[in-house]
Design goal:
Layout (H helix, E strand, L loop, with lengths): L4 H11 L1 H20 L16 H13 L5 E6 L8 H15 L4 E5 L5 H8 L9 H10 L2 H15 L4 H10 L5 H4 L1 H5 L20 E8 L6 H20 L1 H5 L8 E5 L1 H4 L3
Helix pairs in contact: 1-2, 4-11
């Protein structure tokens, strides 16, 4: 009687069960060894065809110039606070601590001294204006424009943020910086900041921003985890010294949060 393949395998397994178990053990051990060498690659760039010339040019550009992705650290200034100097000192402290992290390439939190900005920018400011900017400048320097600005300046001085308005009036009594520095602010992206503070301070003076440039890429999850842990540690350490920055009777401690492409990748 002719045996089928399955029957022959069954007879072999019964007669040579020792060999079957040995092969099973060897294959199981080999499978476990190969499984231990598997890794989960979170870099989406590795899904691209590396031999494609366009992909190669893109990867070369990333290597040369970076991805220009920032970790954003925001200091939320409590409501009702009119003096922001302690929070600016906190930003200085945070920037210095973050810059020392091995995962961080650089930290930007200041746009420069306002007086130095004006001295550098004003002499050639007209060269940066387009036709619309020149018309706006002419309107601002007219009698009606000056009268309107003075009225608005009086209103601002009467608000809780009046101290900032007074400092701005000393530097720029006619409010021309709103026209001249529009180009300067556009070079910093879409950030709408109070340039007179010298910091990345929002115009409503409710938030200070630090731009942290990490050394790794957002799609590198293990790097993101290290960066998140290190950043949280720096924030906690800096906030622990708030009384030393603001004084025992100083303003309320702020909330500091971190986010952006890196921590977004963490979900």
């Amino acid at each position: 009687m002719k045996l089928s393949l399955l029957q022959r395998l069954a007879l072999f397994a019964r007669r040579r069960y020792g060999v079957v178990f040995a092969i099973f053990i060897v294959l199981s051990a080999l499978s476990l060894w190969l499984s231990s060498r598997l890794s989960f690659d979170t870099d989406m760039l590795n899904l691209l065809p590396r031999k494609d010339p366009v992909v190669q040019a893109y990867l070369q550009a990333l290597e040369s110039f970076g991805a220009n992705s920032y970790l954003l650290v925001a200091i939320r200034i409590p409501e009702g606070v009119s003096v922001v100097e302690p929070y600016e000192s906190l930003a200085d402290d945070l920037a210095a601590r973050l810059a020392k992290l091995p995962e961080v390439k650089s930290v930007q939190h200041r746009i420069g001294d306002p007086e130095e900005l004006l001295r550098t920018f004003y002499p050639k400011a007209l060269l940066f204006l387009d036709e619309a900017g020149r018309r706006e400048l002419a309107a601002r320097l007219s009698e009606e424009g000056i009268r309107t600005h003075v009225s608005e300046l009086r209103r601002q001085i009467a608000t809780p943020q009046g101290l900032a308005a007074k400092e701005l009036a000393k530097l720029d009594p006619l409010g021309l910086s709103e026209i001249f520095l529009g180009r300067l602010q556009s070079s910093r992206g879409t950030l709408q900041v109070d340039w007179t503070s010298g910091y990345y301070l929002s115009r409503d003076r409710r938030m200070l921003l630090l731009l942290v440039e990490p050394t790794g890429q957002p799609q590198d999850i293990p790097f993101d985890e290290r960066l998140e842990k290190a950043t949280d540690g720096v924030i906690a350490s800096s906030l622990a010294g708030w009384d030393g920055i603001a004084g025992p009777e100083g303003p309320k401690k702020p909330e500091v949060v971190a986010g952006g492409p890196y921590l977004t990748a963490m979900g």
